[in-house]
Amino acid sequence: MQLGVVFPQTEIGPDPGAVRDFAQAVEGLGYDHVEAYDHVLGAGVANRPDWQGFYTQADLFHEVFVLLGYVAGMTKKMQLMTQILVLPQRQTALVAKQAAEVDVLSNGRLILGVAAGWNDVEFEALNENYKNRGSRLEEQIEVLRLLWTQEVVTFKGKYHTITAAGINPMPVQRPIPIIVGAGDAEKGWRRAARIGDGFAGGGAAVRQYAQEAGRDLSKLIFTGAVGPIADLDACVKRADAQKAMGTTHCVVSTLDYGLTSFSQHIDTITQFAKKAKHLMAS
After folding, report:
1. In Å, how far from its chain's centre is CA 100?
2. What is the pLDDT of residues 60-90, one digit of tens each?
C-alpha cells in the first residue's frame, strides 16, 4: 500500500517557501504521494445565510495544477494526485493540456482524481452547467484519454467537438491514470466502477460494481483516508485495516484538527511516518 499526505490547502497559507518545505518534508519522510484538493472559487456567505457548503471565500486554495507543477520541480519521486479535481466545471481540452504538462514536469508522477463536484456557485461563475455534470464527466474522461494517447484527435460527442487537433507535449503516461470520485450515491459508484482507473469513495460497493462490470481489481487504484490524527496509534491501526481490505493508496490529513502553525503540520506527519513506516511502499 502507498501511504500519502493531504496537502493542507486551507491552512498552509500563500508562502511559496512553506509549500516547498511541506512537499519536500513529505517526500523526505518516505511518503509515497501527496494529494491536493481543488476549488477555484469560494462562495461569499454574507448574502447566503443558509450556506451549507464545506468552504467559503475565506478558505485559501492554491490552484491545483499550478501547485502540482511547482511541487513537481521541488520533488523527485513521490506521486502527485488531485483528490479531487472538479472536472465538469473545467474545459476538458484545457484540463488535458494542464495535466499533461504536470505529468511531463514530474516525469510521469501524476494521478488525476476527478469528480462531478457539489458547489453550484463555482459552476455558475465558470459558465458551466451544474445540472448535467454527471453525464458530462463521463464524456470528459473519454476525451481526456484520447488527447493523452493520440497526437491528433477527431471527436464528436454530445458535449465536445474536436476536429483534427491535439496537445503537445503529450504526457509521459499515456494515458494518465484517472481516479473517479464516487461520492455517496449509487449512480456515482457505478459510474466510477465502470470508467475509472481507480476510485475514491464507495468502499465495498464500488468493488462489487467493478467486478460486475468485468474490471480486473488487481489493476485498479483504491484510495482511502485515515484519522483522527489526535490519536496517531489509532490512526495507524486504521491504516493497517485499510491495507487489509485492499486499499492501494491511503492518505493521512492534518487539516481541521486545530493545528495553528505550519511547523505543527510538519511535526504531525513526521510522528505519523515513524509509526507507520511499515506501511510505506518506498
Report:
1. 15
2. 999 999 999 999 999 999 999 999 999 999 9
Scanning the chain, the segments in alpha helix (DSSP H) are 9-12, 16-28, 64-74, 92-105, 120-125, 133-149, 186-195, 203-212, 232-244, 262-275
274 phi/psi in degrees, rounded to 5: -65, -40
Q: What pTM does this model have?
A: 0.95
- In total, the chain counts a number of residues equal to 282
* DSSP-based three-state secondary structure for 199: strand
- How far apart, in whole angstroms, are the C-alpha atoms of residue 182 and residue 199? 7
Residues 153 and 147: their CA atoms lie apart, in Å, by: 6
Instruction: List, for the chain, all residue ranges whose pLDDT scores fall below the cut of 70.
Output: 282
Burial of residue 243 (CB within 10 Å: 0-12, 13-18, 19+) is middle
- Say if residues 2 and 32 touch (Cβ distance below 8 Å): yes
Report residue 166 as a C-alpha cell: 491535439
Phi/psi at 166 (nearest 5 deg)? Answer: -160, 170
